[in-house]
Write a structure and sequence with these properties.
Number of strands of chain B: 11
Shape of chain A: globular
Structural class of chain A: mainly beta
Structural class of chain B: mainly beta
Largest interface: A-B, 21 and 23 residues
Strand content of chain A: over 45%
Oligomer: heterodimer
Largest sheet of chain A: 7 strands, mixed
Order of helices and strands of chain A: EEEEEEEEEEE
Helix content of chain B: under 10%
Strand content of chain B: over 45%
Radius of gyration of chain A: 13 Å
Number of helices of chain B: 0
Shape of chain B: globular
Distance between the termini of chain A: 39 Å
Radius of gyration of chain B: 13 Å
Order of helices and strands of chain B: EEEEEEEEEEE
Number of strands of chain A: 11
Distance between the termini of chain B: 35 Å
């Protein structure tokens, strides 16, 4: 069926990087843009950026410019989000979400990233 | 950056009542506004896109209205499963979310 499956939880130390994956299945991977959204514990949703799986072009929220990199692998229908220079405030659940009909219609299950010394 | 302000922060109502949630944008987003529902431990679910279009499978008791800077999500008669957190999101200039409205049982 149509779904997005994300990689498992991560624990990282401050200053490290994390790379989260999101594997798409059940549809044509290159036909839909993919977003990344995060949610800190007990907080709201925060948009991080978007990638076009077809050409690989990206657009990032200004807050994350220089610290986030989104890539894709069309051979495995997987998108990746790498966040560097991690700090405690980056502790959050990270979601990938497919863009359809001008909204985020299909979401991954979320990946908890914990940043702690 | 376009800021979305949702009100109220918390709304306490009983099943069967009507719920009215507001989302105000810091500048016009035309009709490029969506609404999502999120329950604890779950990913958000799209309810409304482009201000007033219900997503596939969303019950008719959910409706959206507005354009420009002021938007409303209305739930005509609350069901027990509707108590959750609701977010608005704009796509007029990049993407941003509101801070959310928690709909709780009174």
């Amino acid at each position: 069926q149509v779904q997005l499956v994300q990689s498992g939880a991560e624990v990282k130390k401050p200053g490290a990087s994390v790379k989260v994956s999101c594997k798409a299945s059940g549809y044509t991977f290159t036909s839909y843009y993919m977003h990344w959204v995060r949610q800190a514990p007990g907080q709201g949703l925060e948009w991080m950026g978007i990638i076009n799986p077809s050409g690989g072009s990206t657009s990032y929220a200004q807050k994350f410019q220089g610290r986030v990199t989104m890539t894709r692998d069309t051979s495995t229908s997987t998108v990746y989000m790498e966040l560097s220079s991690l700090r405690s405030e980056d502790t959050a659940v990270y979601y990938c979400a497919r863009d359809t009909i001008a909204a985020l219609t299909l979401w991954g299950q979320g990946t908890l990233v914990t940043v702690s010394s | 950056e376009i800021v979305l302000t949702q009100s109220p922060a918390t709304l306490s109502l009983s099943p069967g009542e009507r719920a009215t949630l507001s989302c105000r944008a810091s500048q016009s987003v035309s009709s490029y506004l969506a609404w999502y529902q999120q329950k604890p431990g779950q990913a958000p679910r799209l309810l409304i896109y482009d201000a007033s279009n219900r997503a596939t499978g969303i019950p008719a008791r959910f409706s959206g209205s507005g354009s420009g800077t002021d938007f409303t999500l209305t739930i005509s008669s609350l069901e027990p499963e509707d108590f959750a957190v609701y977010y608005c999101q704009q796509r007029s200039n990049f993407y941003t979310f509101g801070q959310g409205t928690k709909l709780e049982i009174k």
